[in-house]
Amino acid sequence: MNDIALQNKLLAKFKPFLESTSTRWYIVLVILVAIFAWGISGLVHQITGGHIVTGMRDNVVWGVYIVNFIFFMGLSYAGALVSGVLHLLNSEWRKPIIRMAELVTVISLMIGPFFIFFCIGRLDRLHYLFIHPRIQSPISWDVIGISTDLIGCFIYLYLSFIEDFAILRDQQSINLPRWRQKVYKFLALGYTGTPTQKKIIHTSRTIMSAMIIAIAIIVYSVLAWIFGVTLQPGWDSTIFGPYFVIAAIFSGSGLMIILMWIFRRIYGLEEFITKKHFVNMGVLLLIVAAFYGYFTFCDYLTKWYGSVKINAELINKLFSEFNWMFIFANYIGIIIPIVIVGIPQFRTIRNITIGAVIAVVALWVNRYIIVIPTLETPFLPIQDSRVDWLNYAPTWVEWSLTAAGIAIFIILFKLVSKFLPIISFSEMSHADYRQLKILE
Amino acid sequence: MKIKTYFFLWVLMFSAGMLAAQEAAVEESPGDEEPIEPVMELTYLKDSDGNINLRSSMVNYVDRMPVPLTGLEIDFYAGEDSLVALGSVPTDEEGLAVLVLEGNPDVPLSADGSVRYFAEYMGTDNIYPAEYEVYVTDVNLEMNLEMVDSVGTVSLRAYILVDGEEVPVADEDVYVYIKRMFNDLPIGEDFLDENGEFVTEVPDDIPGDAEGNIEIIARFNDHYLFGTVEKRQTVPWGVPTQYDFAVPQRTLWTQIAPLWMIITLSILLIGVWSHYLYVIVQLFRLRRLARKEEPGSLV
To answer: Does domain B39-136 have CATH number 2.60.40.10?
Structure first.
C-alpha cells in the first residue's frame, strides 16, 4: 500500500470519530466527569475540614496521595522513555503506538503533581518553593525537574503533532467544523512538507527524544532521591534511583499494552495494532520485569542481611501486616507477566493485556508498601502519638481523589483522541526521513 | 487450550500466596515437651564504691547455643546453715539478674571468714529449678594515684579485716588497666608483696579526652578468693585529644549550596534548556519557511 493510500485509509478509519460524537462516548464522559466531581467534593471536604479527614497523621505523613504521585510520574517517565527510545531506534513497529506513549507522558505528568498539592497542609505557602528556593533541597530539585520535564514533553508532543495538524488542515474527506479547521491551520505553523521543513521537524524530534529520555531518567531519579537521601528505614538505599526508573518503565510498558488493547477495540484498529505490537511490548515488559525483580531482590536482601534493627523491624512488618501486598507486588506482579510472555503458548493479546494489568496494579501496590510501612516504623515514636494514629488507612476522601485522578487521565485521553487520531498519520504514512534522504 | 492456559495462570497466581499463607499458619503444636533444664551462674563484683553486685545468669542451651531465659525470678541469699534473704530480681532480656547490695551488708561469715552467696531459681512446670553458690572473702583494695618525678604512679594496697585488724594480702595477682572504648588496656600486672602492695607507672602517651582525662582501674580479676574487686579513678594524665571531624557539619540553615551541586545543576539546566531554545527557534523558522518555499508533499 502506498503512502497516500495508507493515509486515506487512516482518514477513513478515524472519520466517524473525528466528525461526530456517539451517545456512548458522551455517557462514558458523563460517568467519568461524575467520578471527577465526586473527587472534587472530597477535596473541598479536605480543604474545609483539614487533613484530619484523611488517614494521614503525625507519623504517617505521606499516604495514598504520594503513592499516586509516584505512580503517575512513573507512567509519565515510562511513556517518555518508550516513545523516545522507539523514535531514536527508528523501529518500524513503533508507528501505530508511539502517539499513545507520547500522550501517556504528557497527561500523566499533568496529573501527578496535583497529588502533591493534596498532600501539602499549607498550600498557601506553596509559592515559597519558587520565591525562596534552596538548591540543597531534593524538593527543589523535584520542582525544577518536573517543570523542565513538563515543558520538554509538551514541545516533544507538539513536534509530533505538527504534521498531523497539517494533514487535517489540508484533507477534504472529513467534514470538520470551521473552528477546528482554523485551529489545525494555526497549530500546523504553515507546514507544507518542504524538504527543509521535514528536516527541521526530524532534527528537532530527534533532539527532543534524546532530551526527554535523559530528563525522564534524571527527574525520576530525583524523585527516588527524595526517599533515598533520608535515613528512614527502607528508603536509605543507593539503588533507589535506578530502581525507580526500572519500575517506572515496567508500569509504563504495562499501561501502553492496556491502552493499545482499549483503543484497538474502540476504534477497530486490528489492522494497525497487531499481535506483533503486543508481543513486542510484552517482550519489553518481560525484560523490564526481570530487571525490576532483580533490583527488588537486591534492595531487600541487603537490608535483611545487614540486620540493622530498624530495617529488621520494617522487613518483619512487610512479611506480616503487609504480607499479601508484598507477595502480590513483588512475586505475582513480576512472575505472571514473565510467564505469559515467556511461554509462547500463552502469548495471546488477551493474556498479554491481563499480564499488563497485573503489572500496573502490582506497581501501584509496590509504591504503597515502599511509602506506608516505612512511615509506620519510626526510629522514635512521636510524643503523645496515639497507637491508632501510627497505623495508616486511607479514607474515602483519599480514595475519591485517587479515582478522580484516574478519571481525569481517561477524560484527557478521550478529549485528545477526539481532536487528533490516536494513531499518528504522519508516522504511519511517510517513510523515515533518513530513508528518504538516502533515496534522494 | 484456553481453559488450560487460564487454569495454569490461576494456579500460578495463587500458589505463591498459598505457600506463604501456609508458612504463616504453621504453629507449634502443644505437645508433651520436656521441661527446660536451665544453666545458672553467679558472679561477685565489689565495685569502686564498695557496693556488692551479685550477678546471676540463666540460659538454656539449644543446639549448643545459649538462649537467655527472661523474666525468671532469682532469689539471692547469704550464709550456710541459716540463710539470710538478700532479695529477688527477675532476669532481663539477656537472662541476667543483678542484685546490688550497697555499703557493708550484714551477712553471716563462715568458719574461714568467707561469705557464702547463694542464688536460687525455684522452677516451674516448664523449667527445672536451679541454684549456684560462691564463697567470697571480703577484701579491701586501695588505690593511690600521684605524680612521682613527673611520672604518673599507681600504688595499690590490699588487705582483709580479721577481728578488726588489717591483714595485708600477699602473693595475690592484681591488675591495673586504663579504660578504653572497647576493652580495658592493661598497663600493669603482678603479685602483691608481703605488705599487700604493688606500684606501677602509667605511660605518658595514652590518648585521653579533650582535657586529657583517663580512667585508671585496679582490679582483682575473677579471683578464686575475692571474686572481682575493683577501684576506678579519673586523672588528667592522658594526652588531650581534639577530634577533628573530616565531614563538614551541614546545617539546614546553610546559606549557600555546595559548589559541586551548583555546578552540576547549572550544567544540567543549561544543557537541557539550550536544546529547548534551539527547538523553539526552529519552530519559528518553520513558519517563516512556509512563506518562502514552495509547498512540498505532506506524505
So the answer is: no
